[in-house]
Amino acid sequence: MTQQPAATEPMSQEMQDCVQACMTCHGMCEETMSSCLQMGGQTQMRIMRALMDCSEMTRMCADMMMRRSPLANEMCMMCAQACDMCAEACMSMPEDDRMMRCAESCRRCSEMCRSMAGATM
Fold first, then answer.
1. What is the pTM of this model?
2. For residues 106 and 31, what is the distance between their CA atoms, to the nearest angstrom?
């Protein structure tokens, strides 16, 4: 396990960008879930599960990075996986603009988290 910097040290720009990508993705997943619930029976349970998992993982990942958790690197890898699964699930509804925006946000977050997972927090 790597030594974590004190929480009083400023976050690197890369970490700030990753936290922002996580929070943006979290918000997009929450909005998309709300939209799906309004659609009713049209939404597949697989998509809803992926949205819920991604929403929770991105929020938790951002929190862990901000507090410099020693588990943040591992969390970033798990978050990237959740984002990939969510993007894939959203892509199953290409006719829905909100789903496509959510998939794009998930892809961006996944890339940022994979990059952070290889970095020292």
1. 0.87
2. 13
The predicted-structure confidence for 31-81, as pLDDT tens digits, reads as follows: 999 988 887 765 688 899 999 999 999 999 999 999 999 999 999 999 999
User: Three-state SS string across 53-121, please?
Assistant: HHHHHHHHHHHHHHCCCCCHHHHHHHHHHHHHHHHHHHCCCCCCHHHHHHHHHHHHHHHHHHHHHCCCC
Cβ contact 52:33 at 8 Å: yes
From the list 26, 20, 16, the residue with the least C-alpha distance to 83 is 26
AA letter at 17: D
Looking at every residue in the chain, the average pLDDT score rounds to: 89
Cα dihedral sign, 18-21-27-30: negative
